[in-house]
Amino acid sequence: MPKVRLLQGKPLMVGGKVALSGDCCCGGVGACCSDIHVCYQTDQVTCEEAGGDYVGDGTLCADTDCGTGACCETDGDCSDTLDFLCISPNIFHGYGTKCATTRCEGACIPCAFCPMDCFCVGGLTYQECQDAYDDGCRNIAWFLAETCLTKDCSVWPFSCDQDIGACCNMFGDPGCSDNITQEFCTAAGGTSWNQGCTCDDLSCWDGCE
Hints:
By secondary structure, this protein is mainly beta.
């Protein structure tokens, strides 16, 4: 005959019902952090209906710190802190969560030079975005919790009116290239860089030799 499952001497409630030893399909049970930072074992529905933060199926209160949670920050960092210290637009992932096991994802938008040449990759952490696209040839924007559906890639995210110009003789090839930053012009072996100029605007420079 099935017996009532106990937790700390009291019947274990799962989904609003008393859990029995014979129950095999009653759903997962894990650590739940209450709004007063007390941990108890229950299922996700019961935890969230009570206003708690459910840590996950199979998690234990013995391994859970209900005093802090993972806070994803807009610069890509993460800190284990109290919810009121995780100030919007930073995102608090709930008490008991930890940065070590939390992904702070967002929209990664690498852009070449003005005129704009951007694209979007979603679901990346800040570091994944940098590792994949920071090749010295792009400016990179990363937006916490945004997706490629919510972030408009048609908007140039950088101020570039005075940051680009005409570069002469990049990569050893004679001639002029437009819309180049000074840093990239130098890295590519350019012999001169002319801020704010285009290759056709010889009124502001003497052209490439």
